[in-house]
């Protein structure tokens, strides 16, 4: 009995010793796919420091789990409810088709394709945001939860809109936003020196290149103001002060964790609330499996090429695949290439190494 009391007392003693709870309640609206892979790294770290995390996800999410030891999740309507993973493969094949056009024109054609994709996406996102804000039960739940912070990836707009509506301090985990690279939104990027994303230009531009860059810049402003913003105007009129648009909400975010490193960037102005976090998911490497180690060593002094199409893209058309394979065949390096082929299994694509 006395030992029991001793245990209880020492328990209380340790409770008193430990610093007062300083965990925050963080609302997270992530973007699915590869964006989730890096957001999860941040969430693990926040969780290990005692913060309480709530993640909004689609019930049809591709990567974001419903049950997790590090966060609680709430199912809401998001982009995934109306678009599927294969969309990105189709998009890539479409873009590659257009690459047969002359250089000056093709990036505008590609841009046109991307505009139609963005339009569709923002139409879905604006409806999903309206569903959320027009649902008094859901919004009361969000308000009663008394979150301290919104952490979101502004590549998609739901988190920005919800966080602004709830008047939460907002932190962005960002690289892409609305229709371009984050830097183009937060600070002026001189078009004579900084190529607009998608223009396929580099920072050494002659007069024709600069003209092209300027056209891309104008195009992306037109795209934002005339093809993206209008989807949200009804929502903004009903729920936000007059004059609100996507940019005004985004520029009010408190901190931008930018997923790039300035050494890879073009010289251009940035802002004091931008923190460069490029490379943060890198961990200390683990030793390779024996089989892979032997493969690597067998390439000798030449080393190995790793070919990756990212997280969502798994298909190139046959002609491109064969051309790349033929080019690899001429290299002294060995190649590691995750190659997805349609299998006969009912569940579709399976990886082949
Ligand atoms: C949320 O969605 C998942 C499927 O992704 C489902 O298993 C789960 O039951 C849903 N949760 C609620 C509360 O509806």
TrEMBL record:
The keyword Nucleus does not apply. Belongs to the UDP-glycosyltransferase family. InterPro entries: UDP-glycosyltransferase, UDP_glucos_trans. Residues 1-23 form the signal peptide. This is UDP-glucuronosyltransferase 2A2. GO terms for molecular function: UDP-glycosyltransferase activity. Keywords: Glycosyltransferase, Signal, Transferase. The keyword Signal applies. It comes from Dissostichus eleginoides. Gene3D superfamilies: Glycogen Phosphorylase B. It comes from the Eukaryota. It holds the Pfam family UDPGT.
